[in-house]
Structure formats: structure tokens, C-alpha cells
Design goal:
seven-stranded mixed beta sheet, four-stranded parallel beta sheet, globular
Length: 431
């Protein structure tokens, strides 16, 4: 009976919040012929995962479960892993990756994971799967963390940044769709954001050829609404992420439009990505109007106080935000403007300036996208305390929301942020 069991199963916990990272990982695995006999399973939903692992485990010599998650998902993943461990013990290898495990490998391992993939996972996961398939020790694989003797944290050597063009952005054998990642890395190093700490400060752009290859695959399956993942949409092709390369950006949009015409649509500078305010110009907006179908762009403002913008290392001015909104509305596009409340070092004056900006921008026609500050591992603000959002801010959010001029999950984020701050302070997950 054992001889009839297949070699290795890689099970992906394919939740809505985490599909983008797994699309890239599976695409990389598909390029390696030595891993062709590894079966990949995509499972959605906690109950399905809990039950389906049984059948997969019984029909394979080794079963590996991959879970990617954000810090905001800590508690649900903790409960899930505990439940799975209770049922499957050591018969399944648990691997974690993504923003939170990368920033908090020891805490993640203590939740019940066997391995943590730190940072970019393509080549690390390829090595892990190859070693498991060939009954080799994987503890010396670069880019991982695990617990050694006496539960001591072991970190293996870091990997070099990968060349995005070495691997396709979407899998073609295991057909999965979604937003296409076009850039990794961000030079701005905002103190509340994990991106530069995990993916570097030098932008790496996927080539137009590679991106268009993914677009063609999507079109084959009649998926022609194209969206993108990038820290800053208008920076595509830029050598430093700050100086724009509009000819290269336009070439990207032209080539994609040729593929998806006539029925296809491009969404650029809108969800799931955003743009920096100083990069909103007549030229960049002109490209959106000419090639994209979105009726809005998402502009990262974050605060109405220049002091707070400076203390967050944002690298733009409050005036840049006003200018971006004015230009956007003049073109006929909707300006969705991100604000983060409760940022560290805010005084009453800073709060008043942010409230004033929100009022003025909404009077201009902008819609405010509301967020609560959350401390995230690796960032400069990881150990900051979290307090309740003040009553004045709550009142203006309520007023704007009642008029359809504000939206967002700030209330839920505020609650989660307090729990995250408590976790980092106490070094343990409370209920």
C-alpha cells in the first residue's frame, strides 16, 4: 500500500487575502522540471483545509502545508494551526511565509509551524520542496527560520534579491488569475510600512515581455480585466523608484492594451495599488485616461500634518496631496485619498491639521479612505504604542461617511492594532 502512495503534496491555504503571493510561488515552482511530480493542492476555507488534509496525507509520502499571512491574521492563523496540529501531529510539515512570519519568525514558529520562509519565497520554497522530495535535510536551506535544540531560533543565511524575470508572475499549469505584480521594492522606507524592509529599497521591475505573457494566459481563459501589484503604480520602469520613466510606463500600457482589446480593460493606479501624490501629474493622469478603464486613483496622503509626514519618512509634502487631488478631479477621475489615524508622535495640533485637510480635500471632491495605524514587525514603528482614536477624528469620519465622502475599516483596524501592540509588548498571543 505504501508503495502506491505518491511522493510529495504541497497544499496551499488559498485564502482571498493571500492569493497573490501564492500565485507567484506556484508560478516559480512550475518552472522547475525536477518538481514536476509534486502535486499542488489549493484549498479555501478552514473547514475544507481541516478535512481535506486527511485524504491528501493518506495518499502521499510527504505532505507540506503552506500558509501565508499578515499580522492582522495572527489570531485566526494561531487557532487554525493549533487545531490542525492537534489532528495531524507531525504527519504534516507546516510552513509559514509572508509579511508577518518574515518579520516575526520566532513567534510564528512557536504557534506550531516547522519552518518559516523569510522574505521572497520563490527560490527558498523550490529548495525546500526539492530536499523533502529527495529525503534530504532542509535545515540548511537559505532564507528560512526554525527552532533548534531547547527551542533556540535558528536563522539561515539570507538570500539575494531575485530577478523577477526569472519566474512568471502567474502559474500557467495550475491556472490561477489575479493582479499581476509588476514591481518589488520601495525606496521611500515609510516607517509604518513593511514593503521596503521585506522586499528592499531598490525597485525591481518585471519586464514588459513577462507581464504581457501573463496577460496572454489570462486572455486565453477570457480573463481580461487586468490589475497590478506595485508599491507605487506610476514608478514602473524607474531606476530608483522616484524619478519617473513615463516612456517605459506607456510602453507597458500600450502592449497590454493591444493584447486585451477590444473587450479587455486595464485598471491602473487604483485598487489593489496606489500612487504617491508627488507623482500625480498631468502626464501620469493622461496615461490613465488614455489606456485605463478605472474611474479613480488611490492617492497615499496619510496625514495632513507636515511634521507627521516627516516623522514617518514619507518624502512628500501636504501641498503635494492637494495638488494631486486638484489635478485628479480636474481630469474627471475620482480621488480616493488614504489617511492613517493615530500615527506615532501625533499631537492635538497634528490631529487638527489632518481633520482640516480631510474637510478641505472632501470639499474639493475627494473621497477619504480611512485607516488606523497598526504596528507591524520589522518596521521602525513596530514597538509603538496604540491608543484610541480621538473623538474629534471619529466625528469628522462619521460626518464624511454619512455624505458618502469617506469609507474604510478603521474601526476594525483600531481594535486589531491594540491587540498587535499588546502581542509585541508581552511576546505572547492573548485571546
Amino acid at each position: 500500500m505504501l508503495a502506491l502512495r505518491k511522493k510529495v503534496a504541497f497544499v496551499v491555504f488559498y485564502q482571498k487575502q493571500n492569493i497573490y503571493s501564492f500565485n507567484a510561488l506556484i508560478a516559480a515552482i512550475e518552472t522547475k522540471h525536477k518538481l514536476n511530480d509534486i502535486e499542488v493542492f489549493f484549498i479555501r476555507g478552514y473547514e475544507n483545509l481541516y478535512n481535506d488534509l486527511e485524504k491528501i496525507k493518506d495518499s502521499h509520502r510527504s505532505t507540506i502545508l503552506g500558509i501565508s499571512f499578515f499580522t492582522t491574521q495572527l489570531w485566526e492563523i494561531r487557532d487554525l494551526v493549533k487545531s490542525l496540529r492537534d489532528k495531524y501531529k507531525d504527519s504534516v510539515i507546516f510552513i509559514a511565509g509572508g509579511p508577518h512570519p518574515t518579520g516575526d519568525p520566532e513567534g510564528t514558529l512557536k504557534m506550531g509551524f516547522d519552518l518559516v520562509v523569510r522574505g521572497e519565497g520563490e527560490e527558498t520554497l523550490i529548495d525546500i520542496l526539492f530536499n523533502i522530495k529527495n529525503n534530504k535535510d532542509y535545515n540548511d536551506v537559505k532564507g528560512i527560520a526554525y527552532l533548534g535544540k531547547d527551542n533556540k531560533l535558528i536563522l539561515t543565511k539570507k538570500r539575494k534579491w531575485i530577478d523577477l524575470n526569472k519566474y512568471p508572475p502567474l502559474p500557467s499549469k495550475h491556472i490561477k488569475y489575479g493582479a499581476i505584480e509588476i514591481t518589488r521594492g520601495c525606496p521611500y522606507v515609510c516607517y509604518f510600512c513593511q514593503t521596503p524592509y521585506i522586499l528592499g529599497t531598490v525597485p525591481r521591475h518585471r519586464s514588459i515581455k513577462s507581464i504581457c505573457g501573463a496577460v496572454r494566459i489570462m486572455k486565453e481563459y477570457e480573463k481580461t480585466d487586468i490589475r497590478f501589484i506595485t508599491p507605487n503604480a506610476f514608478s514602473y520602469g524607474s531606476h530608483d523608484g522616484k524619478t519617473l520613466n513615463l516612456p517605459e510606463l506607456e510602453r507597458l500600457l500600450i502592449n497590454i492594451k493591444k493584447i486585451v482589446e477590444p473587450e479587455g480593460r486595464i485598471y491602473f493606479g487604483s485598487f489593489p495599488s496606489e500612487v504617491r501624490p508627488e507623482h500625480v501629474t498631468e502626464e501620469t493622469l493622461g496615461l490613465v485616461l488614455k489606456y485605463a478603464a478605472n474611474d479613480n486613483i488611490v492617492i497615499g496622503a496619510q496625514s495632513g500634518s507636515q511634521k507627521i509626514l516627516n516623522s514617518c519618512n514619507r518624502g512628500h509634502s501636504v501641498d503635494d496631496v492637494y495638488n494631486a487631488v486638484e489635478l485628479t478631479i480636474k481630469t474627471g477621475l475620482i480621488a480616493n485619498v488614504d489617511f492613517i489615524f493615530n500615527l506615532p508622535n501625533e499631537t492635538d495640533d497634528d490631529i487638527n491639521l489632518t481633520i482640516h485637510s480631510m474637510k478641505e480635500l472632501s470639499d474639493m471632491g475627494a473621497i477619504i479612505h480611512t485607516h488606523s495605524f497598526m504596528p507591524l514587525p520589522l518596521t521602525a514603528f513596530a514597538n509603538e504604542t496604540v491608543k484610541e482614536i480621538d473623538e474629534k477624528t471619529r466625528k469628522i469620519i462619521s460626518e464624511l461617511s454619512s455624505k458618502g465622502l469617506a469609507y474604510g475599516d478603521w474601526k476594525k483596524q483600531e481594535k486589531v492594532a491594540k491587540n498587535i501592540a499588546s502581542y509585541f509588548k508581552l511576546k505572547k498571543l492573548s485571546d
